Amino acid sequence: MSISRKRSGPYSRWRIGSLTAAVVALVLLVPTAMAGDIDNATCMGCHDDVGEQFAQTPHGTYLTSRPALAEFSCESCHGSGMQHVEDPSPANILNPAN
Fold it and tell me: The pTM is what?
């Protein structure tokens, strides 16, 4: 993985491979800020098809191919799943695509 400076100045961006530093920072900070008490096994109890599809996406491939990122859970992107577990509805879980 190469790291290069795209341009100079206070508004320059670092590029790390094909990811910008902003995306890397988000991936590293979101799990700590948003993780709750629901583990992936609980999510997969109802959403096993989604979990299998996610594993085939670029995000899923990246996360599963790096042992240091194994701590990431569904809640890393979807927020706390506690309310969704108690009342399963699309309205009470964060959908990052929306």
Answer: 0.57
